[in-house]
Amino acid sequence: MNYKSIIVTEQGGPDVLQIVENELRPPAGNEVRVRVLASPVCLPDVQARYGQTPVAPKTPFTPGYAIVGDVEAIGDGVKTAVPGDRIAALTVFGGWSEVVYLTDDKLIPMPSTLDPAEASTLILNYIVAYQTLHRSAKVKAGDTVLVIGASGGVGTALLELGQLAGLKMYGIASARKKAVVEQFGATLIDYHTKDFVEIIQQAEPNGLDAVFDGMGGDYLDRGLPLLAQGGTWVAYGNPLSFPNLVRLLSKLVWFNLKPNGKKLKVYGTTTSRFGKRPFLEDWPKLFTLLVTRQIEPIIMQTFPLLEAAQANELLESGDVIGNVVLVNS
Known about the structure:
Helix 2 (116-136) packs across helix 3 (153-164) and helix 2 (116-136) packs across helix 8 (276-291). The protein is built from nine helices and 15 strands. Helix content is 31%, strand content 28%. The two termini are 18 Å apart. With 329 residues, the chain is α/β, with parallel strands linked by helices. The strands form three sheets. Strands 3, 4, 5, 6, 7, 14 and 15 form a seven-stranded mixed β-sheet that branches. Strands 10-9-8-11-12-13 form a six-stranded parallel β-sheet, sandwiched between helices.
């Protein structure tokens, strides 16, 4: 028997995504074979396809940063899962496949009652939002914050979780995405027509308690002075290249040495200083919020898994609000 996967044949646009067949095999040792049910299409997936990462993956490779799926079979050494279990995983690569093989230490237990597409958005986008809010910036009710890139997968998660946390929020996005920004009680700053620095200086003369920046570049350089005394700027976006990463880390060291009481932090799921335990603490919190419908992830569109190229075209169009998810029914 065979199963199909999506591979990137070379660096480039959505047209480099191809479907390949692989031979199904029994899992060995501590491996678990998982039938993928859903995998989000995230910005890091697109950036990896173009080679826009500090360490670009070698082609061919299968994208897919996160999955939700069902355990089909287990190796002889697996003690933490049985066939039929619903699990999630932060795969980083490999998720866009009908079947994935994972070591059992990569499995995230989750409620089987959750919609796989919705749940898949928690594994990357919502964990980034939750941890930057509560572990990096340590926000508290009444804080004033700015979300840069407020209409995407992480941005809408930041707004939704920020509303739950009782924050006063500003969100940078285009005017046509005003409704989703205001849906979560935030004030839109249209980056096409407004200067975010001028807007914040006028509206918040005492400064911001936190900024969540998935864009970097000019936003970081121009926006750091907007922080209040004791404020935190959290950069969570991919720096796109190794030289950019070096420059970002240099800014981090330089800025945090200043005796101004302000902090610049860099967040990444694969390089998080938090370690593994906080992730295993925070994903269950997000699952509970979803079970109780305190959060409702925005999914603009789902695509069959093997239509990943079309899903990538949509994500790259700039028209997406929230999330795009591949489903394997």
